[in-house]
Design a protein that fits this description.
This protein is an alpha+beta fold and about 170 residues long. About 40% of the residues lie in helices and about 20% in strands. It contains five helices and eight strands; from the N terminus they run H-H-E-E-E-E-E-E-E-E-H-H-H. The strands form two sheets. Strands 1-8-3-6 form a four-stranded antiparallel sheet. The protein has a four-stranded antiparallel sheet with strand order 2-7-4-5, with no helix packed on it. Helix 1 packs across helix 2. The longest helix is centred in the C-terminal third of the chain and has 33 residues.
Length: about 170
Amino acid sequence: MALDDDIAVLSQAPLFNLLERDALRLVAFASENRTYREGDVLFKKGDRSDGGYVVSRGAIALDASDDGSPEAFLAGPGSLIGQAALFARIERRATATAREPSAIIRVTPSLMRRVLEEFPDAAAAIQETMAEELNRLTEGLERVRQQLIAIDGEEIPAQTPEDDKT
């Protein structure tokens, strides 16, 4: 795939869509393209990550179950697989399998660090976006907590920072 094609794919992917063209060019140039046949496994649940993947063509199934459940999430072109793996080596939470002939762009944490160092505006935009995602997650968890309290019929006091010190 040509550099401009990779830039176009990356510009559609979450987080990468926050990068300016020169940053995208660096990512496209320094990343690795991989192709897979139908049925090929990109990684298994429990593996240590080697970076994040942006799907450039095809479909990648992500299955977090331990029983090979058919209810896998399908990632298509422009999808980002392993957002956290862009920044740190983590344990994979799902098995990724090509459902059809597919191609991905692999971006390592060291490449992401370089991009964020060279493009501080992009780093700030990514930090803001990830902070908003974390805030939405926290709010969602609080709603679930409140619903569980209502179901249980008991009032459980909210934990305060002082409680953590005991």
